Amino acid sequence: MNVASRFPRHRPKPVDTRPHAVVIGAGVGGLATGALLGAKGYRVTIIDPLDEPGGRAYAHRQDGFTFDAGPTIITAPWLFEKLWHDCGGRLSDDVELRPNTPFYRVRFDDGTVFDYSGDRAAMETQIAGIEPRDVAGYRSFLDESRRIYEVAFEQLAHKPFHSLLFTAKTLAGLVRLGGYRSVYSVVSKHFKSDKLRTLFSFHPLLIGGNPFSATSFYCLIAHLEGKYGVHHAIGGTNALVRGIASLVTRNGGQIRLNETVTEIETDGRRAKAVRLASGERIAADIVISSADPATTYGKLLKHHPRKRWTDAKLKRGDYSMSLFVWYFGTNRRYDDVLHHTMLFGPRYRGLLDDIFRNHRLADDFSLYLHRPTASDPSLAPPGGDAFYVLSPVPNLQSGTDWNEAAEIYRRKIEKRLEETMLPGLSKSIVSSRIATPLDFRDRLLSWQGAAFALEPKLFQSAWFRPHNRSEELDNLFLCGAGTHPGAGLPGVVSSARIVADLVPDPASILAETWHRQTREKRP
Predict the structure, then answer these.
(1) How confident is the model at residue 508 (pLDDT cuts 50, 70, 90)?
(2) How many CB atoms lie within 10 A of CB 250?
(3) pTM greater than 0.85
């Protein structure tokens, strides 16, 4: 017998010579960027402090329940279909998306209920029941929403705003769209009813914006939802996360969990490595950060001399609100509660002033109630329901002691839900956990505990927002909620695509490395 065949010689693993892209953060933006860069020819390493991918789209699993931690509303499913296609796969092979009909059920404080959907006839019938004159306003609002969508989303959401020249070229169109107006002011132009003004202006809250100050570009959401619908993923939004993570690893990418990046090492205007809390140093040809830009610049680059994103500028920024989220499971089902329900409190403008301007935790609140088991019973034990209820609250600028306030606030929310939507709730709860602004700061490393990074106001959007290609370093790129085009699943996936288009071709990095090494070898 051939000895060599019995004891085959160990062959060392081939060295991966592809340029190395290090991605900070395994949220949806970081994962999508890593997947696209892997397909483009980069060796990708994604680093995240949590024990599973997802970031804000993490999933909590306890007592037989699965709770999506953050985003639950999926719009523009074609963005994910294209992501899978560009990475050599098909979305339907990994994730099943199903539409929600209606999109949301909205409950006003006086008990009025409105089913918000893409069915224009049904919408007009409900609008007429509140204010007949606003049916015409609904039609004109949708027409304006479409015009904004066609420019702000179709033409500009995938374009980087890096230069004043490009911004100047688009300025005339942006002015014609009325981006200097707030969402609420545009909605008020079309609707006379206060209820309907609330109904058609609340969407910026889903991405961290105040309807009274968020640029009117976000009125495009009405057309986006009407055109593509509102969807959910079977298995929860985190099933979508797991699918994107698989796109990363299929192309040889690595996702390192339970690891925290503490510093981006630099050499002149280049990022050369990241340093982990363990002390390990990981060299990189390019670095992509999906962390909050304030965290990226204020902490990871705190030793690097910065010209634009200085500590003073970061401090002056207006940051989004935070969130109080209560995840709970029940030993009974509430079959009359839909997948998505919005419960408005007694105040609208006053509550938002307290959250965004006064930074004060108010006694009243508005809520978003998520019941995914309305569509996917597998997320709870048989006969049970999985829920989360979300309340917008001030970020940590409020000074609220959440260690003391959290349980008091939760009980108030429980009482309100029991009175309005979930009778007998307090006796039916079998699983519970909460997240407060402290979790956003300490667990998700969000600046000031803000849930959506910088507030999406006009002068914190587009060119004024942290650029996808860093102004401070030539090979540092930013993706995720804090950069252009903004928060929300469509926004962070669009930011990933922008970065993938901006990074240098891997072949050019290899050529540059070869020339540099050749020069260094010369006597």
Answers:
(1) confident
(2) 14
(3) yes
